[in-house]
Amino acid sequence: MSTDNPTASQGGNTKTCLLIIDMQNDFCLPSGSLFVRGRTGDAAIGDANRLARFIRSNVMGIDMIAMTLDTHVPMQIFHPCFWANGMKHPDPFTVITADDVRGGRWFVNRDYSDRSGTFKDREELELYCLHYVSTLGKIEIWPYHCIAGSSGCSVVHAVWKAVFYHSMERNRNPLIWEKGYVPYTEYYSVFEPEVNVRHDGRPLLDPEPGRYLYDILDKFDRIIVAGEANSHCVRRSIESLVGQWKTPQKLGRIYVLEDCMSPVVVPGGTDFTGSAEEAFGKFAEAGVHLVKSTGGMAGWPEPPATVP
Questions:
Q1: How far, in Å, CA of 68 to CA of 65, rounded?
Q2: Which of 11, 120, 131, 287 has the fewest other C-beta atoms within 10 Å?
């Protein structure tokens, strides 16, 4: 069964896109460098398996799958090697504040060389990094994860097999969307960087790549969201959609698979479960649907009759 129109539904008149956010080995496997364990200790494993079952069970009702890939290089503003204090680099999960940078507790690694031409010299790079941390108030240093070309960057196998099955059944390719490759900003949201204004007022990324993804999703009547982690990349992505679409009628097209995502819980450190629950409660108040992967889509609330 095939169609020339990638948004033409074969499961009825409702055109449906499944947006899978960062279901990658480094987040979904216990051996991954940033395994999303949740409070159960193995949360992302169940999330991936439930998502794979959902795709297989609803293959004819899903018209397009869009998959985002967190994609990094070693020297990024949130990785340990980017910052230094003498010969010491910050440990993963260290929080760096603007005062830390101003006071010299942490400074940009003096051996780092920007070969991209983004900044004209080291002084400009340091001004930008202070501006970056000041804009956000603080940044958290993450373990090296989802390095481009590494096995950790690959989609976890259970999900990839289900996506491949969808491609064979529906005769269409998934949309693969890389994000996070710019060294000088975090990129939790699939639509926009955390900071896109440099210290001199110019845009860091011009245009923002995510504008194209907004336009793609806007063609669908129903956007189903799953992925890792609900405390970070999934949360920020939905915040971007809420900010972009605003009205309850438009937000009523978004369906969040609550049981196919989990929060970051750092053993002996920060538990982001509470902040994730609070954020998703606000999404529901704004009109976003929180649903389960089991039972199929038949029992879900209908999306708005018309897309404004």
A1: 10
A2: 120
